Every structure is written in structure tokens, then in C-alpha cells.
Protein: Phosphate transporter
Amino acid sequence: MNEKQGDPRHLETLDRDLARYSNLEMATSYVSRPMVGLGVSLCFILLTGIAAMSFFGQNSNPLIVVIAACLGAYMALNIGANDVANNMGPAVGAKALSMGAAIGIAVVFESAGALIAGGDVVATIAKGIIAPESIGTASVFIWAMMSALLSAALWVNLATWIGAPVSTTHSVVGGVMGAGIAAAGFAAVNWPTMSKIAASWVISPVLGGAIAAMFLWLIKSRIIYRDDKIAAARVWVPVLVGIMAGAFASYLALKGLKKIIKVDMSSALAIGVVIGVVIWALMIPIIRKQSVGLENRNKSLKTLFGIPLVVSAALLSFAHGANDVANAVGPLAAIVHASQSGDIGDAISIPTWVMIIGAFGISFGLFLFGPKLIRMVGGQITKLNPMRAYCVALSAAVTVIVASWLGLPVSSTHIAVGGVFGVGFFREWDAERRIHKARLQMPDRPKYAPEERRRRKLVRRSHFMTIIAAWVITVPAAAALSAIFFYLINTFVA
Structure:
């Protein structure tokens, strides 16, 4: 027996069996991972419903509040899975942050933004999309908002599954519009507001992409293409970090801290200028010290942009938590308000417990399902390094300020992804320009075949078309789903 166990053929068989068990264990783990996420999500939704029942069990409509709370939790999970990727994707794609660190930072700052600066007053029926007087009774309004919340959550869930970052705010807007049309007809819709939202489909990504490309051009022309890159970086990196600090100071003053303090545009810009100048002065000795001993090559420059990129991602998450979360859970607050008071015409303040649902739901959704979209935004549209990702983050803050100044509605999701596209398309244009310039200097240089030229594109066209299509159909798709849900609820439940 011992001889048989020592037989090399027996050992080879044992190794093969162990390898099979190891592969089976890995496959089981891979297959069960999505089930764990679904299980944790379901537990969170159920716990939210139980908590709502405990706190509002004495309410005149406890079942409605419980169902609405569960839908709000489901919506928050989808926000974490989809929307947050726009802030953290560039930093992860540039390898300035690991996936775990990005998720940790996003969880902290998204939650802080939602709980500290979120919950600004939301006008009844999602900021004037539907005329309140057209809805009629409070019960009809409640079913309409319930349909809007469910349709928006399902649409964002579907978009996450196919790998398309979409605007959760636009999803909610589409849901409210669809339910409003089903309840009161097309005349109930505030079409001027909807036309502005439709315009933002074009304005947000184009403006974000143009500003990101402009900053990348500045970095390339003033730093990367210089003979002494390190000396150029010592001059320009403090300037760029100062611009970033000033832009984010103005951005947070305008958009992220509305609940704490009201700031007009001129005051926000003044705050940004002061903070930008201070940070610029502080960064001069810091960058000089960091650049000591660095080699005169592009790889060395990446270390100088790492920390500013991480800070910008954290600030974007805070501002997103303060803004978009309130918009997404607004229908839940409207349902609770209408079920308690029966009034659908006044402005609604989002209760703290609703914001807590939003904050925790975002955290769970990001942790469980966020990595897929983070990888897509950060590395599958175009290749990012710290300098390119920095341009994307900076463009997000600057675009919001410019749009606010011009009075244009914009989407943070569209801005961030548009910035990624802008960086990628600018790199394509710049590469073609440099090839053309080199060919003028060396006419005998062979030209690329059409197939090779297509292969060398720096932006993946398949992702570009998928994302654009998802953006275009977000509002009508959410509206159609919402109208169907409202009809079903009104027919079989109401």
C-alpha cells in the first residue's frame, strides 16, 4: 500500500484531482459572488422596510410608507452601482487608486455629502416637471411617484447590467414625466423644463469633453512636449492644482453646501479665486520637493498628479452625494409628505431618515456592484493615466460652474463620461496631427492601411455608441416604464 502511495503515477493522479477541486472551488466562488450581492441587497431593502414600519407604524398609511421606503432603498443601491463610477472611474483607471481604496473613499464622501449637505428643498412633483394642480388627489400623486421611483430604479439597474453609465436624475425625471402623463395627460407636463433637460443631453458631454481636452492640451503643450519636463512641471503643476482647488471651492459653494449656506455665483467665484491662489502658493514648494531626483520623462510626471487626482475624486463624490442623491430620493420624500399631510402643492424638505436610506444604499450598491462600471469608465472607453484622469476630474467642476453661470442644465454623469470621451478623442486628434507633421518632414514614410488606422483608434467606438444610445433613451424609457406601472397600479391596486 505504501509503495502504491509513493508511486509517481499515483501522485500525478492526486495532483490532477486536487487541481480539479481547486478549479471547481474557484468556479463556485465566481458563480456565487453575484448571489451574495443580491442577497445583501435584498436584506438591506427588507431592513429598510422593517425600520420604516417601526418608525411609521402609527401613520395613517403605513403600508404605503413601507413600500416607498423599500423602493427608495432599491433606487439608492442602483445609484451606488451606476452613478458613483463616474467620479472614481478615472482615478482607478489611472492607477492612482486601487479599487478597494476608491470604494472606501467614495463610500465615506458620498455618505458625508448626502447627510451633511444633502436634502435641500425639493419642489413638489420633482421640481416642476408636472403641474401639481393637474394630478388631482393625494392618492393619485402617491401612485404616480411610486411608479416614477420604481421605473427609475429598474432603468438604472438595467443600464448597470449592460455597462452604460446613465444619469439617475434623468431617470427620475423620465419616471415622473411618464407617471404624470398617465395620470393627467400630456398637458400636465412642463415642456419648457423638459426641453432644457433634453438640451443637457448634448450640452453636458460636449462641454465636459471640450474642457477636459483643453486642459489636456495645456498639459501636453506646456509640460509633456517640453525639453525639460521636470522644470516645466515645477511651474505649471502648482498652477493646475490651484485651478483645481479654486474650481472645486466654487463648485462646492454653489452646489454642494446649499443646505448649510446659500452662496450666489459672484461670491462662489470670489471664494474660488482666493482658495485657488492660496493653494497655488502652497503647492510651489511641495511640487519642487516632490520633483527632486525625478527623471526627465513622462512617467515621472505621473507622480506629481497622483494626490491631486485622489483629492478631486473625493470632492466630486462629496458634491455628488449632496446633489444627485437628493434628486433621486426626492420622490420618496414626496410620497411620505403626501401620505402624512395629504398636501401635494407645497415644497418638500427631505427628511433625515430618507437621506440615511440614500447614503447607506449608495454605500452598499457601490461596494457590491460598483466595480463593473468603475472599470468601464476608468479603462474600457480609453486608456487613462493620472494626467488625463486629472483633466476629466477638473473638467467636471469647471463645467458645472460654467453651466451655472450660463443658466444651462447639466448632468454630472454626462459631464464626467463626456470628459473621458473628450480626453480620448483629443489624443486621437493629437496623434494624427503628429503623424501628419512627421510625414511632411519624411515624405517617404509608409502610410498606415485603413484597417491599421481603425485599430489604432484611442476611443472604443462600441462603448461610445452604447453609452450615447443609453443617454438618449433614458428619459423616454423611464417614462414608458413609469406609465405602464401607473396604469397597472391604478387598475389592480388603487
The chain has one domain: 36-492. DSSP finds 18 helices and no strands in the chain. Residues 26-32 have pLDDT under 50 and may be disordered.
